[in-house]
Specification:
The chain has helices at residues 4-17, 55-71, 91-101, 134-143, 186-203; strands spanning 28-34, 45-51, 75-78, 105-121, 124-125, 146-147, 150-165, 171-181. By secondary structure, the protein is of the alpha/beta class. The protein has a domain at 23-116 and 155-203: Rossmann fold, CATH 3.40.50. The strands form two sheets. A six-stranded mixed beta sheet has the order 1-8-7-4-2-3. Helix 2 packs across helix 5 (186-203).
C-alpha cells in the first residue's frame, strides 16, 4: 500500500539524488569538423601527441589514445616513447618521428579549458496528501521532510583533438572539441575520451 510514510521516503531519496544529475556520464563531443570532400585514404599508422608542459599529463593522453588505436588493430606510437622531455616538440623532431615510424597520421590532443563551476540546489519540501482537518494537517506538518538548499561545485574540462595527414604536408583533416563534466578520475575518463574520438573518426571514414 502506498502510504504517506512511503511518499516521504521517496521524496527524500529524490532530494538526495538531485545533485547527482550533474555527475559525469562520460566525455561528450561538443563539436567536430572534417575537411570537406575528403574521400581517403584511411589512416592506419599514427603518431600520438599530447600537448602538455607536464610529462605525466602528456603520457596519460598519449598512452590512452595510442592504446585505443592499437586495440582497433591500428599502429600507433606515443611520441614520448621516442622523444621525452617537457620541452615543446620541434618541427624537426616531429619529422624525425614520422620518418622513424612511417606514420601517415598525427593525432594531437590538448587541454583547452579547465573550469570550476558551481550550481545551487534550492531547498526542498515533500508534497503530501491534502488535509481536510486539523489532525490531518498536524500529522502532515510533523512528518513533512525538508531539505535545505546548498551549493555544490564541479569541474569541467574541454579538450581539442586534431588529425593531420602526414603524407600531405601535415594538413588538418579533422578536429573535434570534447567536454568532460564533474569527473572523479581523469585517469578513468581519458581512455573513454579516446574511444569517443575514435568512434567519430570511424564514422567519418578516416580510420
Amino acid at each position: 500500500m502506498f502510504t504517506f510514510r512511503k511518499l516521504l521516503v521517496i521524496s527524500l531519496v529524490l532530494a538526495l539524488l538531485l545533485p547527482l544529475v550533474g555527475c559525469s556520464s562520460g566525455p561528450k563531443m561538443v563539436q567536430t569538423w572534417t575537411e570537406p570532400g575528403y574521400t581517403g585514404p584511411v589512416f592506419d599508422n599514427f603518431v600520438v601527441v599530447g600537448v602538455s608542459k607536464e610529462m605525466g599529463t602528456r603520457r596519460l593522453f598519449e598512452d590512452a589514445f595510442a592504446g585505443t588505436l592499437r586495440g582497433r588493430g591500428l599502429s600507433a606510437c606515443a611520441s614520448y616513447t621516442l622523444i621525452e622531455g617537457e620541452e615543446k616538440l620541434t618541427d624537426e623532431e616531429i619529422d624525425a618521428i614520422l620518418t622513424q615510424t612511417g606514420a601517415n597520421g598525427i593525432l594531437v590532443t590538448r587541454l583547452v579549458a579547465h573550469d570550476q563551476n558551481s550550481s545551487y540546489q534550492p531547498s526542498y519540501v515533500t508534497a503530501g496528501p491534502y488535509y481536510y482537518n486539523y489532525y490531518g494537517y498536524y500529522n502532515y506538518a510533523w512528518g513533512a521532510a525538508y531539505a535545505p538548499g546548498y551549493v555544490y561545485s564541479y569541474e569541467v574540462i574541454r579538450l581539442e583533438t586534431n588529425l593531420y595527414d602526414a603524407d600531405e604536408g601535415n594538413k588538418l583533416l579533422w578536429s573535434g572539441t570534447s567536454e568532460i563534466v564533474d569527473f572523479t578520475s581523469i585517469d578513468r575518463e581519458v581512455p573513454r575520451l579516446a574511444d569517443k574520438v575514435l568512434k567519430e573518426l570511424e564514422r567519418e571514414g578516416l580510420i
